[in-house]
Amino acid sequence: MTITRRGFLAGASAAALAGPAIIGRAQAADTIRFVSILDQSGGLDIYGKPMADATRMAVDEINAAGGLLGREVELKLYDPQSTIQYYTQYATQAAAGDKADVVHAGITSASREAIRPTFSRFQVLYFYNTLSEGGVCDFNCFCTGSTPAQTVEKLVPYTMNKWGKKVYIVAADYNYGQITAQWVQKNVAENGGEAVETEFFPLDVTNFGPTIKKIQAAKPDMVMSALIGGAHVSFYRQYAAAGMSASVPIASTTFGVGNEHKLISAEEGNGMICAYSYFEEIDTPANRDFVARFNAHMGGDPPALNELAARSYEGAWLWAEAVKQAGTAERKSVIEALRAGLGIDGPSGRVTIEPKTNHALQTVYLAELKDQAFHIIETHETQPPTDTLLVCDLVADPSQAVFKFENGLEAAGIEM
To answer: Residues of 140-162 as b/e, b for ≥16 C-beta within 10 angstroms?
Structure first.
């Protein structure tokens, strides 16, 4: 079930009129309540739709296998429409109204930080299944996506060795883009390079002509992109139209996780290099089986799979395995199970929760885009979230519930 804000308000009104009878029936069903809050409309729907599809598939598979602890997992899926205000509304509804046993939610760091305190306050277990800038240090929050230490740290030296030392950085103008740009600057400097310019863009910007002219004037060896959302796809089209793709190649920490490589032409994307914890093209039996099952589950014309979709699927199964091991869906017991070295073998490889940070140990892949498909060029197994480990130790202090990089790396004590 997908619920938009209009549907949510209508449902809330109907529930208020119906009174305790509806509440009583819901409780009598004795389901385990799984709530997902993901953008399926608005500027971020290119990320949210595949994540929602993969979440549905995971819950369907869990229930087809008999559910958890002899109980059905009930999925309620909200669409915040790429609006932070709706995220906060649905987070409160999930925690206080739905009495969720677990919530998997958020795409941007802005949405995560808008709702994470709500789940801590209501003591509702929270999963964030999106690549991030790292730095979340919260006993109640599990971040399964890749961080810059796992991706940028591999992508920067590889592409600098391939293309050259002068790097022009373009990024989205919010926490993820700003902090990822700082990690790129740091890694460029540590590898003997120069970040010649860094530019940030609001998520609704579509005209990149002035920036492309600045890149032409700066004559960098490469562009590193951390652009986000449907509007920013315009950059890649305009860049190729200006004849830049052949002369100044692009590496990205974000391109492809919204299936942008399917939205632009092969000529516009060829040669781009990216690093993620998952690509649809991973050639293993586990991933081939996952892709086939996903395509069958979707039917018709299924979307391409990416890190966000795969990690949404794997995040749901991590939680499910923790419930099984704990023998209960109760929050504290599930958290203990997750932090006791629990891992799963998913389509991306082995995924394990690292207990000092509640982030994931995971395999990271570098891949080059050719003809709208990614080709794996390097594989790095069991990569720790060393960026977050620099600032977080939930084993020593489980009471922490903060975002360490909110004010930048230097404010968090990271030397730039």
So the answer is: bbbbbbbbbbbbbbbbbbbbbee
**Does an H or E element contain 374, and which?**
strand 373-383
**86 vs 84: CA distance, rounded Å:** 5
Distance between CA atoms of residues 354 and 392, nearest Å: 11
User: CA Rg, the chain, in Å?
Assistant: 21
DSSP 277: S
CATH 3.40.50.2300 given to domain 2-146+284-363+393-403: yes
Phi and psi, residue 91, nearest 5°: -65, -45
Instruction: Please give the biggest Cα pair distance in the chain.
Output: 68
pLDDT of residue 28: 34
CB burial string 168-193: b at 16+ within 10 A, e below: bbbbbbbbbbbbbbbbbbbbbeebeb
Q: Say what the pTM is.
A: 0.92
* Contact present, 292 and 261 (Cβ < 8 Å): no
Contact 313, 58 (CB under 8 A): yes
The rounded distance, in Å, linking the Cα atoms of 152 and 257 is 15
pLDDT digits (tens, 9 = 90+) for 361-406: 999 999 999 999 999 999 999 999 999 999 999 999 999 999 999 9
Domain positions in the chain: 2-146+284-363+393-403, 152-276
Q: Please check whether the two domains, 2-146+284-363+393-403 and 152-276, share a CATH topology.
A: yes
Class of domain 152-276: alpha beta
